[in-house]
Amino acid sequence: MRSEAVLNDQGDAMAITVRANVVAEPRTKGERRRARLVEMLSEGSDKRASVNELAQALDVSVVTIRRDLALLEKDEIISRTYGGASLAPGRREMTMAQREVSNVVEKEAIAQVAVSLLHEGDLVILDAGSTAERIAAAIDNRFELTVVTNGLRCINRLVGQDRVHVLVLGGNLRGINETICGGDAEMTLSRIYGNIAFVGADAVSAERGIASRTYDQSRLKSMMLRQATQVYIIADSSKLDDDTDYPYWSPLPHEWGLITDAGATQEQLDALEEHGATTILLAGEQDTQNSRNPKEEP
């Protein structure tokens, strides 16, 4: 059983209806496997794999993989190739359900580090996304906070936390990543200045900043980067490659922090430090003890 927040458009305002005791639809084993298939195709160097490779990696039969690929092809998520599959052209973006099972350990570790930075009474700007969702869950009603967010999944994670006041940025809903953005969200955020902001990214580039799928998302992220005393980009190490395929970028502020995982390379971290990352927290086995702060180096 769970509670669920539902957004209702009421002209200039966005109201939240809380529905309690909603039974969450279980994720089946097949759904989790197909989400992992999409993730594997996204991570591959050539964005494709053979049926045999996929079956071996997931420890299932070739027949099962072919059935999964047929379902994903029907949904126009993948394209079948001779003996294998690749992501469908123009459909590189995973749904939130697929992101939910992607880099789970790393995202959970990042969330725990992020929550360790919070203090009683903080006003927190929390971006949308699967890592942000884990931060919302990790708060676990431990603090009196105000959380400003544009993420539907973050809202649902915070509904049952009665010590957390939630301010929802209203606007246009983008279904695939369950994000609210647009002019109304920007206008509301312009009147807010937080103690700390956690901003997600599809990719992080030392030169370009943080990547977004849409122009509206990029505008809102750019504003989030300006609207808090402390700003942390939350991104697992798979997002630290300089991927020029993304069309929209939010420039990095003069000083900012990064919370990522221990899979980040020295070269990646050095480049980000050179472009304003004054604090880098590496989530993992040692959690917050594993950190870099160039200002403290001799």
Number of helices: 10
Poorly predicted spans:
1-26, 294-298
Distance between the termini: 53 Å
Structural class of the secondary structure composition?
alpha/beta
**SSE order, as H and E?**
EEHEHHEEHHEHEHEEEHEEEHEEEHEE
Number of domains: 2
Query: What is the correct CATH architecture of the largest domain?
Result: 3-Layer(aba) Sandwich
State the share of residues found in helices, binned by percent. 25-40%
**Average predicted local confidence, pLDDT:** 83
User: How are strands sequenced across the largest beta sheet?
Assistant: 8-7-6-11-14-16-17-18
Radius of gyration: 20 Å
GO molecular function: DNA binding; DNA-binding transcription factor activity
InterPro entries: Carb_Metab_HTH_regulators, DeoR-like_C, DeoR_HTH, NagB/RpiA_transferase-like, WH-like_DNA-bd_sf, WH_DNA-bd_sf
Keywords: DNA-binding, Transcription, Transcription regulation
Protein name: DNA-binding transcriptional regulator of sugar metabolism, DeoR/GlpR family
Description:
The chain is an alpha/beta fold and 298 residues long. The protein has 2 domains: 29-94, Arc Repressor Mutant, subunit A (Orthogonal Bundle); 99-296, 3-Layer(aba) Sandwich (Rossmann fold), CATH 3.40.50.1360. It is 33% helix and 30% strand. The chain is built from 10 helices and 18 strands. The protein has helices at residues 29-43, 51-58, 62-74, 96-99, 104-116, 130-139, 152-158, 183-190, 215-224, 266-274; strands at 2-10, 13-22, 48-50, 78-81, 84-87, 123-126, 145-149, 164-168, 172-174, 179-181, 194-200, 204-205, 209-212, 228-234, 248-250, 256-261, 277-283, 291-292. The strands form 5 sheets. An 8-stranded mixed sheet has the order 8-7-6-11-14-16-17-18, sandwiched between helices. The chain has a 3-stranded antiparallel sheet with strand order 3-5-4. A 3-stranded antiparallel sheet has the order 12-13-15, with helices on one face. A hairpin with a 3-residue loop joins strand 12 and strand 13 (209-212). It is globular, with a radius of gyration of 20 Å.
